[in-house]
Specification:
Helix content: 25-40%
Distance between the termini: 63 Å
Strand content: 25-35%
Bound molecules: flavin-adenine dinucleotide
Number of domains: 2
Structural class: alpha/beta
Number of helices: 8
Strand order of the largest sheet: 5-9-4-1-2-3-10
Order of helices and strands: EHEHEHEHEEEEEEEHEHEHEEH
Shape: elongated
Mean pLDDT: 89
Number of strands: 15
């Protein structure tokens, strides 16, 4: 019987995106009358247990070697696991490896690949994927004409499903990945790792983000944004212009070539609202903007807008919020 397969790659942290991935695989399997098999390359117990209570079967894929995982080794393991599982649909997350692996896996399985899914359904016997295009201004519905179809999902676009009453059996598969039987294996190699000093929550998981752009004029005003963010429990983000100028770390960039975020509140300060930036905040629940230019595009994409110089707003707002917090704590 064909299966819907969810793939959890090595190094993936347990978060809402993982819950959403397993939830969507379960929903698609039910809709198509198929079984949901979770393929986990993760050594995380939390992920294994969650997968077991949200699927029909878990295949825990492990390598005999203690490998520094590369896309090639993941691809080899997923290829071998999926090929043995009669996939009709294979779902991956939004992380960099998944985005890289999806088309390669689709090709290896003799199927197709679709990226950035926000909704999956079936039209008769055909799998269809909905994804937003043109910076969220339109939705494209893409149909898979060749199966299996490998789809990577937009992070946090999908919600979890309730836990199943009985946990699925977990089978462990071991793979020897020494390169002998796989010409592509270790075609690339990590030669250096630089750890970002990442304090706080990942931007993708942040509930609130205060983001700054070129309008701030330099690195110093980002300290003001940091203070405001600390008071409201938000993370700091930035536009590409601010990151490219070296005012803040590149890892803070939000947008098409940065992070895709989905906070409850996104406050854009001195950001014009270019389509590439808006692509990263399409899933934000509430967008607020502060900008001196009343014609800035960001004002057409926010629920709350203030036409003003940020210098008149950020400092006094932070002070007022600190006062309110201390009063409410008394
Ligand atoms: C392929 C490609 C990918 C890209 N990917 C991304 C991406 O991932 N993320 C991204 O952000 N951009 C991306 N860009 C760049 C994008 O097109 C814009 O250039 C960029 O977003 C502009 O950043 P900004 O809004 O900070 O700067 P600007 O467009 O220069 O806007 C600055 C704003 O600040 C306002 N301002 C000025 N002074 C003040 C003040 N004192 N107080 C308040 N407001 C003030 C101005 O009115 C203006 O609206 C990409 C571009 C390309 C071509």
């Amino acid at each position: 019987m064909p299966n819907v397969i969810s793939c959890l790659l090595p190094g993936v942290d347990f978060d809402r995106a993982v819950e959403g991935l397993l939830g969507e695989a379960d929903r698609v399997a039910k809709q198509l009358g198929l079984r949901h098999v979770a393929v986990t390359c993760s050594s995380s117990d939390v992920i294994q247990q969650y997968a077991a209570s949200h699927s029909d079967r878990v295949v825990s894929v492990q390598s005999h070697d203690d490998l520094d995982y590369q896309p090639e080794s993941c691809l080899a393991m997923l290829d071998a696991a999926c090929a043995a599982l009669e996939p009709r649909v294979v779902l991956l997350g939004q992380d960099t490896y998944s985005q890289e692996l999806a088309p390669r896996l689709g090709y290896r399985l003799g199927g197709s690949s679709i990226g950035d899914a926000q909704q999956i359904d079936a039209d008769g016997d055909r799998i269809r994927v909905h994804r937003s295009v043109y910076g969220g201004k339109a939705t494209a519905v893409v149909q898979a004409n060749v199966e299996p179809v490998v789809i990577w999902l937009r992070a946090r676009a999908f919600s979890p499903e309730p836990e199943r009453p009985n946990a699925a059996p977990v089978e462990t598969e071991h793979f020897d990945l020494d390169g002998s039987g796989n010409a592509n294996f270790q075609a690339t190699q990590i030669v250096q790792r630089q750890h970002e000093s990442a304090a706080g929550v990942r931007l993708e998981d942040a509930q609130a983000i205060v983001s700054g752009g070129r309008g701030l004029g330099g690195p110093e005003p980002f300290d003001e944004l940091r203070k405001l963010a600390a008071v409201i429990g938000a993370e700091l983000g930035a536009s590409r212009a601010a990151c490219d100028s070296g005012w803040v770390a590149p890892g803070l960039q939000v947008g098409q070539t940065g992070k895709k975020v989905a906070p409850e509140l996104y406050l854009a300060v001195g950001i014009s609202g270019a389509s590439q930036h808006l692509m990263g905040i399409a899933d934000a629940k509430v967008v607020a903007a502060i900008n001196t230019d009343a014609e800035a595009p960001i004002f057409r994409h926010c629920q709350f807008g203030l036409v003003d110089d940020y210098r008149n707003v950020i400092g006094p707002l932070t002070e007022r919020l600190v006062d309110l917090k201390s009063t409410s704590n008394e």
